[in-house]
Amino acid sequence: MSNHHSRTSARPAPKRRYLAVIALTMATALTAAACSSSEGSTDAAKGPVTLTFWVKTPFPDSDVLLDLWNKQHPDIKIKMDIVAASGNTIPQAKLLLDVKAGKEPDVAAFDTQYLPQFVTTGSVLDLNTVEGGNASALSSNFESWAWSTVHVGDGLYGLPIDSGPLSLYYRKDIFDKYGLKVPKTMAEYVQVAKSLHKKAPDVYLADFPTNDASVFNAMAWANGAKPFKVKGDTWVVDIAGKESLKVTDTLQELIDDKVIMTLPHFSSEWSEAYNTGKLASWMSAAWAPGPLKSFAPKTEGKWNVAPMPQWTPGVESSGSWGGSSAVVFKKTKHPKEALEFLKFITTNQQAWSDYWIPKITIYPTNLKAQKSEAFSKPDSFFGGQKIYETIAASNHNVARDYNYGPVANEWFTTQQDYLSKAVNGEMTLAEALKATQKSVVAYMRKQGMNVTEAS
User: Fold this and answer.
1) I need a labelling partner for 237 at 20 to 30 A (CA). Which of 170, 317, 345, 387 fits?
2) For the segment 2-50, what is each residue's pLDDT rounded down to a tens digit?
3) Residue 274 and residue 297: Cα distance in Å, rounded?
């Protein structure tokens, strides 16, 4: 499930009774909080079982997925709860409030970046504690970097569904018209941006959005950034580390030279810029082809996909924008059945071929699903290119050991606000990143976490 919407969100109040869990569970091995899963380890009641499945909108044609499940598991019913964004509140923020109120579902699927934050509430079940579930044995089914993102310490708190490795989607016709070479490095990317805008003042290579910090963080991820790390019982915060500051410096140069646009992602102006050829490329995730075909239909056949330009020449490294995972909450009375459902939605090949790939157009973390025939077909929108050959390579090259930290909601929202101010000229992008770190560290300390800033 792609996560390409704005993350402006309400900021839930701290859950005081979980401060000890936050301090100990999230910054150390974390097994203490997860292993006390007695609430969710009771045997299933005899007869049909009903599980509540929480998902964020959109979730089109969900009957296809549920009908397939029901045929294979007639005694385990799924009640789906689809939660839409409300005003400026993202669905994950509402789920955090539901958890605080003790109204969490049995199972949920949401953006992977929020998984550690839900673990801090003490409400998410360590799948390793499900008797007979053999959850850890599933590791060979998934991309190794994605498997690491559903772990916090020694605990396995979910199963990964999809991922969003970055690639460069570009207008081949525009590149050909102006004699531009597809950039292989970020240094070349900057030069192409300048050259294109000089040759065609009404055309820009790219857009840096003012309403979403996700693409920036994915670019920093590709450069080896590690905004959150664990050291003993302490969180080490490095949001404004040198790897991330290199990204700000590069983007600042492009903004100062006025050779890229700064439109909000998925706004009407942004879509129109792509549809009319005013924007010539999009550094985006594996889920991008679907939206691109939707908001720029007039450009069919004019696109190609290339690897993300590398920060370090000769080093193939990517970051992920989006992607989701599924978790089981401790409150469930049916942990075995809940884990079985998680296995189904993440590893069942018919679920991938009949639902996830054709209906949601997401790219799997499941290795077998990556070999789906659907990913080997030429794509007419991209001039007949087999685009998933490039996307697959990017997915394999996502940098390891990236940690979203325990306050993703606060982090993304704060960073988005500061980056927007920087784009509007109120500060530099580097200053925005440093201000974000200062604010996030203060917030974490207010929650009772042990925090230090990287030197």
Assistant:
1) 317
2) 544 433 333 333 333 333 334 434 443 333 333 333 333 344 446 799 9
3) 9
